Each structure stands twice: as C-alpha cells, then as structure tokens.
C-alpha cells in the first residue's frame, strides 16, 4: 500500500491527496478505513487464533493462556488511550500537532514493543502495565476533561520529550548490558580485551 501511495503521488502529484476521490471522500479516508479494517478483522483475529492454537497444542512458553496474552495488554492499552485522546481532544490535538503526536505515538509503541521483544528473547515475564501508561492516562484524562485547555500542546511536547528520552535511555542501557554480558563491543562482534 505504501509503495502504491508513493507511485500514485509520483505519477499524479501531491494534489491527489487534497481532492475528493469518490462520493466526497478523500483517498486518505479510504486508506485509513482499510488500515483499521485490516487490523481489526484480519491481523488481530489472526493473532488471537495463533495464541489459541499454541495454547491448545501446548507450544506456548508458559502453560497459561494468561501468560500468552500478557504481552498484548500494554500495547492494547496504549492504543486505547491514544485513540481516546485523539477522538475526544477538545483542542483537536492531532490536527494541530500531527508530527509531534505521531512522533510520540511511534516512540511510545516502539518502547513498549522493544520491552516485549526483550522479554520474549530472554524468556522473562513482561510487565502487565508499561510505566508509560500511567502518565499517559493522566495526560489523556486532563486533556479530554478540559483541564489542560490551551496548554494541551505544551503538555504533548513535554510528554513527547519524556517518552523520547526514556526510549533512548532504554536503548543505551540494553546495549550496555548486552555488551557486558556477551563481552563484546556494541555494534561489533570482536571480543573485548580483558583489562
């Protein structure tokens, strides 16, 4: 879909995204609808089916279905909180700060998923609630209740900075820990010389 969007833009021009396409709807409306539809009706059910099948065949790392579904809790709650913020934002935050909001969404999801991946690789139990969810829940509540008012964009910027710094910190810490554990330099397979 992304390649088709690039080819369409390159062939017709960027104006195609700003003109009504069919029945007054824009192409972006159709793409968003397809993305949500495929996620809800194909990807998510397939994920649940795979977890169920692994549970029935007893091929899960843990015997419990709860343990198999545990890694889905934080990403799902993150998605719900961010969707609530966008839909119920009195200041229409996504329209006012789309790049900043999408940056924060990408970094937050990246951090949550990186932690899930590290837990899977190390056969450790993931935390039920990622710590990002608590301040995010406060921000979303304050935003949709109108407590933030005109400062909603400022709070978004501060939260985005917090999430970004926390993600970089997590990446550096994981890199250092792997480097020490495997006795290698980061981004190199050469062994460290003992001191």
UniProtKB/TrEMBL annotation:
Sorted UniProt keywords: Lipid biosynthesis, Lipid metabolism, Membrane, Phospholipid biosynthesis, Phospholipid metabolism, Transferase, Transmembrane, Transmembrane helix
Domain of life of the organism encoding this protein: Eukaryota
Entry's Gene Ontology BP terms: phosphatidylethanolamine biosynthetic process
TM spans (from-to): 23-44, 65-88, 100-118, 130-148, 154-172
The keyword Transmembrane appears for this protein: yes
Matches recorded under InterPro entries: CHOPT
Molecular function terms, GO-annotated: ethanolaminephosphotransferase activity
Subcellular location: Membrane
Primary location class: membrane
GO CC terms, sorted: endoplasmic reticulum membrane; Golgi apparatus
Family indicated by similarity: Belongs to the CDP-alcohol phosphatidyltransferase class-I family.
Name of protein: Ethanolaminephosphotransferase 1
Species this protein is from: Chlamydotis macqueenii (Macqueen's bustard)
